[in-house]
C-alpha cells in the first residue's frame, strides 16, 4: 500500500482539492437551514473479481468508482444527496438539496473543520489482493478446481471466485471532526456440485476472507481447506436422508450458525427499529429477553475481521457493545441520528453501502459469548434432536421476530450421538422467544470464516457472525417427512 494511503485524508485533498476550508463552506451551506447535524462522506473504491466454472476462468471484472454524499439531519428528518462528481460545485448543490428537509434559520453557525477522530488500527495491511497479478489469482482458482474434483468422482462441477476491493473514505462533520480510513476487503468462495447418477444433485459451499492480504489464503493452505470443505458438504448432502418434521431439540454448531442469531436477534436490536417502536425488543432495555446463559455482543474492533472497521461510515470509532448480558437486554446498536433521538450514545454502528446511501444502524461482528459446557456434553444430553452445522438462506420479520432458516448441513441426534445426515431441514421460530429456550452453551465459541453480507433497506454491507455450540429446546423443524 502506498505511503500516500497511510494518510487517507491527504488522498482526497491531493486528488480532489478537498481542503478544510472547502469542507467548511459546504457544511456551512448545509446548515443554512435549522439542522441538528450535517456531514460529508467521501469515497473512492477500486474493486476486482475473478470467477471459475467448468474448470475455466470465465469471468473477470474491474471497477473504479468515487463520489460524495451530503447529509442533513433535522429532528427525525434526514435529507441526503450525492454525486459521482467530487467537485465543490456538485457538493454545494448536494448540500442545498439535502438541507431542504430543515426549517428556516436566522443565522448560519460557523463550522471549523480539523479535529481528527482517533481511530483503531485493525487492518494495517501492506498490500491488497488487487496488487497480486491476475495470472497468479487465476492459477489459485484452477488449483481449487483440481483439489475439489479429486475429492470424489461424484463432484461434477466447481464454481470458485475471488473478489477484492480497496475503499478509501473520509467523513467531515458539522461538529468539526474529520475521520479517514483505508478499508481493504477480500473473499474467496467455493461451491461444489455433486451428482449421484440417479438424478440426485447437491451443492456444498464454503469460503472465507476479511480485511486481509492475499497471503491469508495461502497460509496453512486455507484455499485447500475451502475446496475440500465445499466438496465434503456436497457429498454429505448427496448421501443424506430427508429431514424429519416437528418440534424438537436443536443443537446449533459453532461459527456460521451464528447467522441465525444475526437475523433473528441482531436486526431487532438496531436503533432505528427500536426508536420507531416496531421491533419486538422496543422499550425492553433492562428486561429479561433470553436465558441466563446468553450474553450477546456486537464488536467492530476485532482485527482483520470482515465486519470490523476503524471508524464507521459516520466517522465514529467502532466499539464492543454488549446487547444482552446474562439474559438481560442492555442496549441497542446506534448511529448518530437514532442515538441523539433516543438520548443514547452512538456505538459506532452507522454504516452504508456506498456514497449513494445515507447511513443507518447496522451490525458489525455479532456473536454469543461461550459458556461452560463442552460440545460433547451438549450432544450427549439429547435423546432425539437435530444438529445444525451450517445454514443457507433465511428471513425474519422484525416486527414480531418470526424467522425461517434452511440448514445446508444437518444431522440427526439419536440417544446422545450424532448419526445420519439429513437434508431439507428448516428452522421455524421467533427471535425474542428462541433465546429463552437456550438450555446449554458450550465453551467453543467460533467466528465465521469471513463470508457474511447483510442486507437491509436495499443496502448490503460486510458483517461477521459467531456462536458456540448451543442447545435450544423446542424449535419447530420443517422437513420432508413426519
| Sheet with most strands | 7 strands, mixed
- Quickly count the domains: 2
Structural class: alpha+beta
Shape: globular
Q: Which percent range fits the helix content?
A: 10-25%
What does it look like?
21% of the residues lie in helices and 40% in strands. It has 482 residues and is an alpha+beta fold. The protein has two domains: 3-238, PmbA/TldD fold, CATH 3.30.2290; 242-478, no CATH class. The chain is globular and about 75 Å long. The N and C termini lie far apart (57 Å). The mean pLDDT is 94.
Walk me through the topology.
Blueprint: H1 8-16, H2 20-30, E1 33-34, E2 37-53, E3 56-74, E4 77-83, H3 88-98, E5 103-104, E6 115-116, H4 134-151, E7 155-173, E8 177-195, E9 201-210, H5 215-218, H6 222-238, E10 241-242, E11 246-252, H7 258-266, H8 271-275, E12 296-299, E13 320-325, E14 328-329, H9 336-341, E15 350-351, E16 360-361, E17 365-368, H10 375-380, E18 384-396, E19 402-414, E20 417-423, E21 426-430, H11 431-434, E22 438-441, E23 446-447, E24 453-456, E25 459-462, E26 464-467, E27 470-478
Parallel strand pairs: 6-8, 10-20, 11-18, 17-26
Antiparallel strand pairs: 1-5, 2-3, 2-7, 3-4, 7-8, 8-9, 11-27, 12-13, 12-17, 13-14, 15-16, 18-19, 19-20, 19-21, 21-27, 22-27, 23-26, 24-25
Defining key terms:
six-stranded mixed beta sheet, seven-stranded mixed beta sheet, PmbA/TldD fold, alpha+beta
Short description:
The chain has helices at 8-16, 20-30, 88-98, 134-151, 215-218, 222-238, 258-266, 271-275, 336-341, 375-380, 431-434, and strands spanning 33-34, 37-53, 56-74, 77-83, 103-104, 115-116, 155-173, 177-195, 201-210, 241-242, 246-252, 296-299, 320-325, 328-329, 350-351, 360-361, 365-368, 384-396, 402-414, 417-423, 426-430, 438-441, 446-447, 453-456, 459-462, 464-467, 470-478.
Amino acid at each position: 500500500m502506498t505511503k500516500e494511503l497511510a494518510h487517507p485524508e491527504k488522498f482526497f485533498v491531493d486528488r480532489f482539492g478537498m481542503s478544510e476550508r472547502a469542507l467548511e463552506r459546504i457544511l456551512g451551506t448545509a446548515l443554512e437551514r435549522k439542522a441538528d447535524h450535517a456531514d460529508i462522506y467521501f469515497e473512492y473504491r477500486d474493486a476486482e473479481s475473478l470467477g471459475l466454472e467448468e474448470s475455466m476462468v470465465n469471468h473477470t471484472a474491474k471497477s473504479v468508482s468515487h463520489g460524495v454524499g451530503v447529509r442533513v439531519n433535522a429532528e427525525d428528518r434526514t435529507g441526503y444527496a450525492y454525486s459521482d462528481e467530487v467537485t465543490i460545485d456538485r457538493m454545494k448543490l448536494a448540500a442545498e438539496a439535502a438541507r431542504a428537509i430543515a426549517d428556516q434559520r436566522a443565522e448560519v453557525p460557523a463550522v471549523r473543520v480539523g479535529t481528527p477522530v482517533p481511530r483503531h488500527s485493525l487492518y494495517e495491511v501492506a498490500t491488497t489482493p488487487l496488487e497480486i497479478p491476475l495470472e497468479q489469482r487465476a492459477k489459485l482458482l484452477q488449483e481449487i478446481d483440481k483439489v475439489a474434483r479429486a475429492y470424489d468422482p461424484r463432484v461434477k462441477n466447481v464454481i470458485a471466485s475471488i473478489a477484492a476491493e480497496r475503499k478509501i473514505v473520509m467523513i467531515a462533520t458539522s461538529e468539526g471532526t474529520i475521520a479517514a480510513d483505508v478499508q481493504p476487503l477480500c473473499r474467496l468462495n467455493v461451491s461444489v456440485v455433486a451428482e449421484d447418477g440417479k438424478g440426485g444433485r447437491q451443492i456444498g459451499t464454503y469460503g472465507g476472507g476479511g480485511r486481509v492480504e492475499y497471503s491469508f489464503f495461502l497460509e496453512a493452505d486455507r484455499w485447500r481447506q475451502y475446496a475440500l470443505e465445499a466438496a465434503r458438504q456436497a457429498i454429505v448432502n448427496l448421501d443424506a436422508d430427508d429431514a424429519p418434521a416437528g418440534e424438537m431439540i436443536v443443537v446449533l454448531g459453532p461459527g456460521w450458525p451464528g447467522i441465525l442469531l444475526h437475523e433473528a436477534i441482531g436486526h431487532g436490536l438496531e436503533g432505528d427499529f427500536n426508536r420507531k417502536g416496531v421491533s419486538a425488543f422496543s422499550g425492553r432495555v433492562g428486561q429479561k429477553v433470553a436465558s441466563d446463559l446468553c450474553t450477546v455482543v456486537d464488536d467492530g474492533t476485532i482485527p482483520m475481521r470482515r465486519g470490523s472497521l476503524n471508524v464507521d461510515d459516520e466517522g465514529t470509532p467502532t466499539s464492543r457493545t454488549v446487547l444482552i448480558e446474562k439474559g438481560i437486554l442492555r442496549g441497542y446498536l446506534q448511529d448518530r441520528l437514532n442515538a441523539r433521538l433516543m438520548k443514547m450514545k452512538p456505538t459506532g454502528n452507522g454504516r452504508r453501502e456506498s456514497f449513494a446511501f445515507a447511513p443507518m444502524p447496522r451490525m458489525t461482528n455479532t456473536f454469543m459469548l461461550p459458556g461452560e459446557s463442552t460440545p460433547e456434553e451438549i450432544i450427549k444430553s439429547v435423546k432425539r434432536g437435530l444438529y445444525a452445522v451450517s445454514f443457507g438462506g433465511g428471513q425474519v420479520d422484525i416486527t414480531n421476530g418470526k424467522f425461517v432458516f434452511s440448514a445446508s448441513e444437518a444431522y440427526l441426534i439419536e440417544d446422545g450421538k450424532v448419526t445420519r445426515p439429513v437434508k431439507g431441514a428448516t428452522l421455524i421460530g421467533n427471535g425474542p422467544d428462541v433465546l429463552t429456550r437456550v438450555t446449554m452453551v458450550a465453551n467453543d465459541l467460533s467466528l465465521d470464516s469471513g463470508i457474511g453480507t447483510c442486507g437491509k433497506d436495499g443496502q448490503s454491507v460486510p458483517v461477521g457472525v459467531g456462536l458456540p455450540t448451543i442447545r435450544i429446546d423446542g424449535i419447530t423443524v420443517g422437513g420432508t417427512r413426519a
